[in-house]
Amino acid sequence: MEISQEWLAFEKDVLGKRPLTTGTVEEVRQAYRTISETLEGQYAALGEEWGVRDHKEVTSSGLAIRIYTPTGDPKRGEYPVGVFAHGGGHVVGGAWKSSFEDRMCRYIAHNAQVVIAQVDFRLGPEYPAPAQVEDCVEAYKWGNPEKYFSIGSSLGGGAAVAVTLKLLDENLGDSVKGIVALAPALLHPWNVPEEYKGIFKAYEEAWKGAPMQDGESMVVFYGK
Q: Around Cβ 111, how many Cβ atoms within 10 Å?
């Protein structure tokens, strides 16, 4: 397992240890909260002075969505809108529970000059898949999907792709203006086609002790 020197220095000098999200669901959630709070303390808060404001919207079903809007241009209605599915294995995180997802959404909104609508979808195992994708599809249909694109990170990147496939199944593919899948989790390690197993080594090489999420914890997130 190869780890960059920059990350190793960050672990040593800033975190003081290697961050891991393993164990039971509650242990994983507590580790995730600790990592998020630690990282949040390393950076200054990003508010409207950085060029992005955020507010909460709620759909008719009660689904909460955190909206990030660039403040530099008053023509908000003309911005493309990215419906964002956060990472966390569909088990942890949330639109108001992750400092690094919050920072990512602000960064994208500011630098790409788009509105980001982060979906506060239901989490497993209390709400098994595909509840998370269903919530993101609902968010996609909320508002004006003619200006929307699907975006997500990690397992949320997989959800962004799944949202698009779901909309295609419903003959709504024309409403998808694009997909942005950031480091997406798209393939369960047990389902790798035979011809690709020789090069699909990430889970094997990072099975135990990799920073943040190792192969073992990813399989737990996938539901074994």
A: 11
Instruction: Evaluate whether 117 touches 81 at the Cβ level (below 8 Å).
Output: yes
217: amino acid identity, one letter: S
| Residue 28: exposure state from Cβ atoms within 10 A (0-12, 13-18, ≥19) | buried
Residues 199 and 184: their CA atoms lie apart, in Å, by 18
Q: Look up tokens 């390690």; give the residue.
A: 189
How far is Cα of residue 69 from the mean position of the Cα atoms in its chain?
18
Which amino acid type is present at position 2? E
- Kindly write down the DSSP assignment for every residue of 93-134, as one continuous string: --TTT-HHHHHHHHHHHHHHT-EEEEE----TTTS-TTHHHH
Ramachandran sector of residue 104 (left: φ over 0; alpha: ψ -120 to 50; beta: rest): alpha
One digit per residue, pLDDT tens: the chain, 224 residues?
889 999 999 899 888 889 888 888 898 899 888 888 887 777 766 555 568 889 999 999 999 999 999 987 655 558 899 999 999 999 999 999 887 789 899 999 999 999 999 999 999 999 999 999 999 999 999 988 888 999 999 999 999 999 999 999 999 999 999 999 999 999 889 999 999 999 999 899 999 999 988 888 888 777 76
CA end-to-end span of the chain: 22
Query: 76: Cβ–Cβ under 8 A, 6 or more apart, which residues?
Result: 69, 115
CA–centroid distance for 16 within its chain: 25
